[in-house]
Inverse folding.
């Protein structure tokens, strides 16, 4: 289990929901709603509102993120949108524009 | 196609996309690589490579791909540029358009089959259409989720318009005999589709109505067959009857 992968040449336009880890190397537009972990790889592009437990961004995210546990922006990632999570990590070199809410 | 059992966090090149068993995707999926569905997809799928619907997979979508291999459930029209394989345990409800169709023992299928050279053309058109769509989307604000959702039905509607192109498979009767001998399975399937084609002249556009027409047609066929037998039997009965009466 726990091995959903959106490959680098794949475009998903719509809604992804579920109960499983998600690795994004391609493009996802619309909405993502998970109770597990999301990893956006360097090639990954997310143009969606995201609800998840944890998210790790190496690629590009445009849209609001709501994480129940943790949101992590890695070096060289690009993020535009609001982040709402109890723990937010932003690495040196990450690009971010938006609001941060750590109230939990 | 490399199968993966662990999450990929390395960012190396993955040639296969997997929709896991506990994932649901609503909307449109398109791309240039293999897609393996173990979960659920609703909407539309458009690939230049192979779509695998695993035993646990459920696809309620209009499907376009180079190859399609179904072990699970697919409800929707399927256009495969090369081949469509229904493995044992597969269930497919919808119309099929593909040059090669393989149906294994234990697979269930309900719908119309069109075998011709059309899919390649439609795939090209679909690809062009998809690009145009994508271009339009990127122009518009793709950020808002409602907009994306609103587009999904439009995409479906577009996909639904695709089947009417199939009649241009008028080349099909001509092409069929020429190709006929080399693929036994193809012949078998063709035979099956002919049977179906004989009774119901019009296959309804929606899938559920299609079921009804098929049921009706089979009933009709069932009724017709006994009648013929009865008539011939009656014709013979008087002669035989006389003899029988004489004997008894």
């Amino acid at each position: 289990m726990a091995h959903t992968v959106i490959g680098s040449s794949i475009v998903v336009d719509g809604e992804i929901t579920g109960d499983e880890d998600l690795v994004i190397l391609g493009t996802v537009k619309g909405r993502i709603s998970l109770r597990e972990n999301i990893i956006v790889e360097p090639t990954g592009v997310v143009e969606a509102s995201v609800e998840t437990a944890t998210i790790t961004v190496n690629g590009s995210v445009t849209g609001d993120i709501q994480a129940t546990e943790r949101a992590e922006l890695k070096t060289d990632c690009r993020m535009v949108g609001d982040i709402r999570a109890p723990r937010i990590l932003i690495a040196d070199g990450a690009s971010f524009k938006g609001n941060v809410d750590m109230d939990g | 196609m490399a199968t993966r059992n662990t999450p990929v966090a390395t960012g190396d090149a993955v040639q296969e996309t997997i929709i896991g068993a506990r994932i649901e995707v609503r909307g449109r999926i398109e791309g240039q690589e293999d897609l393996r569905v173990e979960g659920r997809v609703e909407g539309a799928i458009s690939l230049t490579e192979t779509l695998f619907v695993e035993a646990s997979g459920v696809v309620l979508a209009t499907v376009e791909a180079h190859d399609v291999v179904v072990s699970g459930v697919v409800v929707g029209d399927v256009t495969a540029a090369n081949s469509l394989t229904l493995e044992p345990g597969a269930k497919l409800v919808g119309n099929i358009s593909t040059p090669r169709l393989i149906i294994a023992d234990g697979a269930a299928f309900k719908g119309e089959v069109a075998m011709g050279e059309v899919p390649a053309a439609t795939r090209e058109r679909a690809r062009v259409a998809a690009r145009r769509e994508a271009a339009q989307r990127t122009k518009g604000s793709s950020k808002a989720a409602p907009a994306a959702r609103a587009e999904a039905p439009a995409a479906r509607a577009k996909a639904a318009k695709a089947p009417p192109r199939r009649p241009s498979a008028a080349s099909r009767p001509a092409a069929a005999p020429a190709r006929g001998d080399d693929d036994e399975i193809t012949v078998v399937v063709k035979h099956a589709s002919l049977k179906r084609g004989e009774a119901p002249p019009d296959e309804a556009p929606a899938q559920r109505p299609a079921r009804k027409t098929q049921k009706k047609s089979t009933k009709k066929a069932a009724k017709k067959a006994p009648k013929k037998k009865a008539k011939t039997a009656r014709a013979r009965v008087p002669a035989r009857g006389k003899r029988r009466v004489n004997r008894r």
Notes: Residues 1-14, 141-224 of chain B have pLDDT under 50 and may be disordered. The first helix of chain B runs from residue 118 to 139. The CA atoms of residues 87 and 191 of chain B lie 19 Å apart. Chain B touches chain A through 42 residues (CB under 8 Å).
